[in-house]
Specification:
six-stranded parallel sheet, 24 strands, 36% helix, 17% strand, elongated
Length: 566
Amino acid sequence: MEAKPKVNGGVKDGKQNRRMPAIHGPTNPMVTPLLTDLYQFTMAYAYWKAGKHKDRAVFDLYFRRNPFGGEYTVFAGLEECIRFIANFKLSKEDIAFIRECLSPTCEDGFFEYLGGIDCSDVEVYAIAEGSVVFPKVPLMRIEGPVAVVQLLETPFVNLINFASLVTTNAARHRFVAGKNKLLLEFGLRRAQGPDGGVGASRYCYMGGFDATSNCAAGKLFGIPLRGTHSHAFVSSFTGPDEITEKSLKSQDGSKVCKDFVSLTQTWLSKLKRLSSSEGVFGETNQSELAAFISYALAFPKNFLALVDTYDVMRSGVPNFCAVALALNDMGYRAKGIRLDSGDLAYLSCETRKFFQTIEKEFQIPDFGNTGITASNDLNEETLDALNKQGHEVDSFGIGTNLVTCFAQPALGCVFKLVEINNQPRIKLSEDVSKVSIPCKKRSYRLYGKEGYALVDIMSGENEPPPKAGQRILCRHPFNESKRAYVVPQLVEDLIKCYWPGSAEKEREELPTLVEIRDHCMKQLEQMRTDHMRRLNPTPYKVSVSTKLYEFIHFLWLNEAPVGELQ
């Protein structure tokens, strides 16, 4: 795994104050201050014109509904937001472009103002990346001059939306597949462009996948790479006569097989004589056999064959086994097969039986456990169906449905003003789900006796935090009849400072990708399975303190206009 610099300037280490490296810019060079909507600049000018641009504002970034019909979401994209804000600066070219886009009546002083702004007066508080999160609870709280923070809205929402959606999708696939299956992300070719492909690989790994086929993501993020060959490689061969270099040195280097092709054909003849294989296969496809032999000669330590080009049980699996047994004679262990079509449950079970027969008949230790990988447009539903049918697949290669988030294209994050100049603000709507929760808040997670999360609770910034063992009244933000007392065994403070205005000030470190992935897996284990299940999951409770509940409704009544009947 490629080491990433820790960023925690000013953190005390014993008696010494270590100065940490500067925060690098965003991974994607397209993420610049211009990656925003025009109305952010028009508002910035209006704020400046009104003399309000330095007003101290607080915004919450959150979402309203969990994706994919589920009851949880995984928060991702925070590191890229911090990279963006730490290097935020409009260039002269950027400002010249904005000048062209705005009205010619805009004053020169505004563009001079744009040239001087950065994020040194901005603070970002957030939940740790990789955490399981829920609707209405702020993922990020951004404080600073209103005009500057407004310019951060679109890029922040953009960086969080897709990242959190893909990570959640990956986590859901991991939950259905189970902890012990190897999950491989194969989605680059079907992703929404290069950025979608690279980002999906990163966040699928964060959400619990084990490896990717994406070389660029492997280089950028240190994600393990996996990949073998396609049907084109198999069908490009016409027969064993094409193989000119037939020799193979043994694993320990003690001997050389001068004709590996003949050794493989000898094993294929032995397989045909197996009583269990009678009626299963006769003559296998020789061009396929040639392809497998060639691939094994190229990668004897990592031989994994795609076996469905012609016929899985009558050709692909026997040909693979012949090559694998020949490799075994030379001290190598084949990795396994990949199934990319057909009845995956049936074919995997039949293949496993064939492997186990070979182990028994030829006394080849552990051959029965040779790996079986399945691909072919897999999704959550397919994995669930395979589990119910019974299968022998060890690894799943998943692409299109995973990286494109085919089941739901967007998460729907929003960025709402909740306070300005210490005055709480609220956004009202006839749709209660769109009513914002005002003021600067703290968020806590309360855990029960069994270690599972019970409820998230939000309270005002200046309220005393809830304590373990203390009886706490948790209220639904808008429904007065929904309330419950909780006596938590553990209280977790969710919000930490990730950007205090400078990388040199004390702040939370940005963890490595592996650390975020580990945190994500731990978080998912702390959730009850009824919250996680695919069908009819139990909603997780999000609440507010009594004080905050009362304040929400006071402000609501105060801000809502009173109608008049005539």
